Every structure is written in C-alpha cells, then in structure tokens.
Amino acid sequence: MGDKINHSGIIETVDGEHVRVRILQTSACGSCKVAGHCNAAEAKEKIVDVRLHKGCADYKVGDAVVVSTSQSAVGKALTVGFVLPFVVMVVALLVALAITSDELTAALVALVSLVPYYLIIYKAGERLTRGVTFGIEKRNY
Questions:
Q1: CA torsion sign, 117 to 119 to 122 to 128?
Q2: 20, 26 in Cβ contact below 8 A?
Q3: Cβ atoms 84, 117 nearer than 8 A
C-alpha cells in the first residue's frame, strides 16, 4: 500500500500558495453499499489546507484532486492528540489518588490536567505542524 495516506477531494478555494480542499473522511464501513441504511456508517467532511511551493496556477475551484500525507505525520498526530493526553491524564490520576486518597478529587484533577496540555499544544501549533506536509495532485478519471 505504500507509505502515503490518500484522500480524494474537491478544491474549495485557491489563494496564493494555499489550496483548501474538502475531503470526505469515511469510517471503515462508510463506503459500504448499505451504509445509508445503517447507523454504524460514519462519514465526515473535512477541510485540508495544502501549502504549495510552486504556486496554485494549475488548480481551480471545483477540481477533483487527491490529497496525501505520510504515515509518519499521521502517527505524530495520533500520538500528540490521543496517546500523550491519555498518559498525562493517567499520571495525574495516579499522583492525585496517592496524595488525596479521594477518587472524585483524583478524577477531577486528571480531567483538569488536560487543560494545560491542550493549551501548550495550541501555543506550539506552528512548531508541531512544521514536519507535517500535504501533497496534492489532480485526480485522473
């Protein structure tokens, strides 16, 4: 399958060196023929901002394209978005439980510990996304 994650999409806007692409992110069963009749099927529209170094002259609003990124970028996003917050919350829970011996207080401390974590992620957003790049190419029919 290669080392790229690909999604088909439609160009929403073209502005300078930025192309905004609307992609349909589907769950594993989202492409099933009976998905419209099933509550388990899930599909969400996402907007991806692709920065081009060569300019956007070749792309127009409404063009069908394929947006791609590396699996390592996806792994980094999953780690920062899910794994590290879980670790922070569990550590905060265990420390608070050891200090207070009160489960309710420990649970609240664990939840509140995520606030500074996500504030740090928000402030470091530019540095975190430095290594994450999206590629784009016109989809051939």
A1: negative
A2: no
A3: yes
What's the predicted TM-score (pTM) here? 0.63
Q: What angle do helix axes 103-112 and 114-123 make, rounded to 10 degrees?
A: 10
Residue 130: count of CB within 10 angstroms of its CB = 8
Q: Residues near 80 by Cβ (< 8 Å), separated by ≥ 6?
A: 121, 128
Sequence-distant (≥ 6) Cβ neighbours of residue 71 within 8 angstroms:
3, 4, 5
**How many DSSP H helices and E strands does the chain contain?**
5, 5
Rounded to an integer, what distance in angstroms lies between the CA atom of residue 72 and that of residue 49? 18
- The SS3 call for residue 21 is strand
Render pLDDT for 98-126 as a digit per residue (tens, 0 to 9).
999 999 999 999 999 999 999 999 998 87
Signed CA dihedral, 86, 89, 95, 99: sign only:
negative
| Phi, psi (degrees; rounded to nearest 5) at 82 | -125, -50
